[in-house]
Write a structure and sequence with these properties.
The complex is a heterodimer of chains A (172) and B (109). With 172 residues, chain A is mainly α. Helix content of chain A is 74%, strand content 8%. The termini of chain A are far apart. With 109 residues, chain B is an all-beta fold. Chain B is built from no helices and 8 strands. Chain B has strands at residues 31-37, 40-41, 52-57, 63-67, 73-76, 81-85, 90-95, 103-108. A 4-stranded mixed β-sheet of chain B has the order 2-1-3-6, with no helix packed on it. A 4-stranded antiparallel β-sheet of chain B has the order 5-4-7-8, with no helix packed on it. Chain B starts with 30 loop residues before the first strand and ends with a strand. The chains are: A mainly alpha (172), B mainly beta (109). The A-B interface holds A 63, 66-67, 70-71, 73-74, 148, 151-152, 155-156, 158-159, 162-163 and B 38-40, 60-62, 78, 98-102.
């Protein structure tokens, strides 16, 4: 039996297999997924800062870069302290592939078209990651400090999702 | 009614409109530390006029303490703190401009 973690990023559904013998992803896998998810959003924010001239979009992108960098710095310090080596896995790979596709798509856009596409993807991306955090990553985390960091991350990313949805509504 | 800054050049100016109350005799001022952590403000205890509220940002993230009426604003990087001096009675609601879901209230009498 295979447990499947379903993620939808940028409209594409990603089915991620989790080993049947495990109750869920391991802490090293969770750390890798969380770090990867944050890093991908930092890159998306940097892309927005290169392309967008909209002040609200730029503030949002700066917030994404700043907040996700803070979480990832903490995550790196935590795995070092716990002597955990983040483990690459299918979920991280699927997130990375979807983000690369989205990055390429956004790279062709300019002006309001870029702004709308960027915030729409940010809302969808955070919704996906938040769903995975809530349903799989947080319940599966064994280490209390890792679980606590993921819970703080979930609260933060829910704020980001709400912010992105608000911006998306304003740009319509 | 107002929350006015005192001797705090590093902090944002604070002039918040609160509910009006009758003047009261001077009370011993207290300093209340309110920690910001894990995307939340700790509850602000009941305040008296003359008290000081020191917000300490122990979170990983930059946060603000911003009056919903725009009358005061503290912008706090991680590890930093800022103070509000309570010069009048009433209630003020505040939030974080970066994370608007973070909201809290303080009341002074």
């Amino acid at each position: 039996m295979i447990r499947t973690l379903l993620l939808t990023v940028g409209g594409a559904a990603l089915a991620v297999a989790v080993p049947a013998e495990a109750a869920g992803p391991t802490d090293p896998q969770i750390a890798h997924i969380a770090y990867t998810a944050g890093n991908l959003d930092i890159e998306a924010g940097k892309q927005a800062l290169k392309i967008s001239h909209n002040a609200a979009i730029r503030r949002f992108a700066q917030e994404m870069v700043r907040d996700h960098r803070a979480v990832n710095d903490k995550a790196l310090a935590l795995v070092k302290k716990l002597h955990v080596t983040p483990e690459a896995n299918a979920t991280s790979a699927a997130l990375t592939k979807a983000a690369a596709d989205e990055h390429a798509k956004l790279a062709h856009l300019r002006g309001a078209a870029f702004d709308r596409a960027y915030v729409a993807n940010e809302a969808a991306y955070h919704k996906t990651v938040n769903g995975a955090l809530k349903s799989t990553l947080i319940p599966s985390a064994n280490n209390a400090e890792l679980k606590s960091l993921l819970e703080t991350g979930l609260t933060l990313f829910q704020e980001h999702q709400a912010h992105a949805e608000h911006l998306a509504a304003e740009l319509k | 009614m107002s929350l006015l800054p005192r001797r705090l050049p590093l902090y944002a100016a604070v002039v918040g409109a609160l509910l009006s109350v009758a003047p009261a005799g001077p009370a011993a001022a207290a300093t209340h530390v309110v920690v910001i952590d894990k995307m939340k403000y700790a509850p602000v205890p009941p305040l008296e006029r003359g008290d000081v509220v020191e917000f300490v940002n122990r979170d990983l993230f930059r946060h603000t303490v911003t009056a919903t009426n725009g009358k005061f604003n503290l912008d706090l990087m991680p590890g930093k703190s800022g103070k509000l001096h309570i010069n009048s009675a009433g209630t003020a609601t505040f939030y974080c401009t970066y994370h608007p879901g973070m909201r809290a209230i303080m009341t002074a009498r």
